[in-house]
Amino acid sequence: MQGKDKHHKQVTESDLSLNTDENAAGSAHLNEPVAEQGQIEKLEAEIQEQKDKYLRLLAEFENFKRRTAKERLELQQTAGKEVIVSLLDVLDDCDRAEKQLNSNADIAVQKEGIQLVFNKLRNVLQNKGLKVMESLQTDFDSEKHEAITEIPATDENMKGKIVDELQKGYYLNDKLIRFAKVIVGK
Questions:
Q1: Count of other CB atoms within 10 angstroms of residue 130
Q2: What is the spatial distance between Cα 90 and Cα 123, in angstroms, rounded to a whole number?
Q3: Looking at the structure, do residues 62 and 98 belong to the same domain, yes or no?
Q4: Phi/psi of residue 177, each to 5°?
Q5: What percent of the chain has pLDDT over 70?
Q6: Pairing state of beta strands 180-185 and 145-151?
Q7: CATH of the domain at 56
């Protein structure tokens, strides 16, 4: 019987070292505490750190959105300030021309004064990037021109070309800001 007990004792000890979970390999899984409690705490600390980083980043992004919205609003409110300030000189000239019209009957002097105001206005706008579109006698282009009507062309070369311009087209810094309204020869 001692042989049986000895064999039985060996089986019992090996049974204790076996893993009874048939889905897991090895013999070290049965009733063994999780590998290292320190690893769990370390991972939890890393998760908390990542959450903190995320919350700080989210708060920073929200502040950025608020700041940009405020800057955009301020820019919209003052966007034309530079152009308006540069036109104030032209407005002053208009006031002087109006006084001249009321006090002087000499048409030549009045015409000259008004022409100076018009030229100054054009120069100020050109300095701000405004450019007139040249349309007369060019081919009609629906990307730049708006055809108001067509008229019979007196010359064969004017078919499909712009024969008259009702309203000028303009570019601002080489970007089209207004189509030219034109009459096209057919």
A1: 15
A2: 10
A3: yes
A4: -115, -15
A5: 81
A6: parallel
A7: 3.90.20.20
H-state helical runs in the chain = 2-17, 37-78, 81-103, 107-127
Ramachandran region of residue 173, left (φ > 0), alpha (ψ -120 to 50) or beta? left
State whether 57 and 124 are in the same domain: yes
Higher-pLDDT residue of 6, 61: 61
**Backbone φ/ψ region at 25: left (φ over 0), alpha (ψ -120 to 50), beta:** beta
Give the pTM: 0.56
Residues 107 and 161 in one domain: no
- Taking a C-beta distance cutoff of 8 angstroms, is the pair 128, 83 a contact? yes
Which of 128, 148, 166 represents a domain boundary (last residue)? 128
Count Cβ neighbours within 10 Å for each residue of 33-55 and write b for 16 or more, e otherwise: eeeeeeeeeeeeeeeeeeeeeee
Q: Which residues are within 8 A (CB) of 177 and not within 5 positions of it... i.e. 6 or more apart?
A: 170, 171
Dump pLDDT digits (tens) for 71-125.
Answer: 998 888 777 888 888 899 999 999 988 888 888 888 888 888 899 999 999 999 9
* Sheet with 175-178, side-by-side order of all strands: 130-132, 170-172, 175-178
